[in-house]
Amino acid sequence: MKSATSKVVTASDVSVVVLAIVAGVYCGLFGLRATQELNTRLHRIDSTLSEYNNFRRDRWRAFGMASISLIVIGILLGLDVWTWVTKAQQMNIEKSNTDLNVQWYIPFYSLYFVLTGLHIHFANTAYGLGRRYRRLNLMLRTSYLIDKSYTHSSNLIKVSAVRTISFNPMMPTALHASLTKLNSEMIANESAAKNKSLVMREMADNHESLNKCVRLLSGSYGIAVLFILISCLLHLVATAYFLFLEMLNKRDNGYVWVQTLWIILHFLRLLMVVEPCHLFARESRKTIQIVCEIERKVFEPILAEETKRFWQQLLVVDADFSASGLCRVNRTILTSFASAIATYLVILIQFQKTNG
């Protein structure tokens, strides 16, 4: 780290971790009320989708994500400290305790556990929203599209409106029984359509509540996610920069492999933010396709009207996660990151050659 470029890159690498953690703590403290409202809405939605919930599997997934992430970051930090201790012993600079200098970085390394915790917390929350969108879509399909009474128009009973029915006591008993049966079938069909319209209204309310949860998450934790994205970008640039320097100069195989593992880890950190946001945005967009299909298959006026209202509501839905309004977090950001990393790497390598 003799050149000025290397010092600037290292300082940025350290500072962005601290800033991301400070932003996470800030959002956690000042977003407490929004978090409480988010949990209340999710609890209400879960009570509606109780038939499709699998809390045990969700808990195991969250536990697996947390355990694997913390174990991987712990192993990688241990390898990194061991590599730097080995390099410090090889340098053996006089009047300088290189081992002590490396040990001063251990408290900084412990901040990675906090940063990983922020990633896990956000990923679990965002994945939870995506799972609820998926379960709502599944409930819509099973309630309206799998039912044969809506998939086959030949099964529908078409009844003409009758203003008055005069009953003659001399009318045959069979005709009176047929009218009674027809009346009971009409009442049963109207009752079924009314029940399904109420379910449709409940699904529309749940979808709107999920959209509100996305806005709460964006408004409360947008700053933290923004700094996490910045940390991923700077870490990928810095790690790739030091990897290229090592490959062009000394080629220490242990150091090269550790830097490669760090690049993989930072890319996985980026995916832990991007993929959950992409998931719930994709599932939210699927809902309007399902509702359009339902609208083509229902004929009862009360249910058709409720379906149309749900469709009109979905036309103005925006379920994309926004990091403080500066960028939308979805898979398209990966290409932007790739181009930015390549650009900054070229600039840093040119500065390195200029500074010697």
Question: Can you describe this structure in just a few lines?
Answer:
The protein is mostly helical. It contains ten helices and no strands.
Structural features, described:
- It contains 10 helices and no strands.
- Helix 1 runs antiparallel to helix 7, helix 3 runs antiparallel to helix 8 and helix 8 packs antiparallel against helix 9.
- The relative contact order is 0.13.
- With 356 residues, it is mostly helical.
- Helix content is 82%, strand content 0%.
- The chain is elongated.
Radius of gyration: 30 Å
* Rough outline: elongated
Average pLDDT taken over every residue: 79
If helices are DSSP runs of H or I spanning 4 or more residues, what is the number of helices? 10
Main structural class: mainly alpha
> How many individual β-strands?
0
Q: Name the helix and strand elements from N-terminus to C-terminus, one letter apiece.
A: HHHHHHHHHH
Helix content: over 70%
What kind of sheet is the major sheet? none
Low-pLDDT runs of 5+ residues are 148-165
The quaternary state of the protein chains shown equals: single chain
Instruction: Estimate the strand proportion.
Output: under 5%
* N-to-C span: 12 Å
Topology at a glance:
Elements: H1 4-30, H2 32-48, H3 55-91, H4 98-103, H5 106-145, H6 148-151, H7 173-248, H8 253-297, H9 301-315, H10 332-355
Helix pairs in contact: 1-5, 1-7, 2-7, 3-5, 3-8, 5-7, 5-8, 7-8, 7-9, 7-10, 8-9
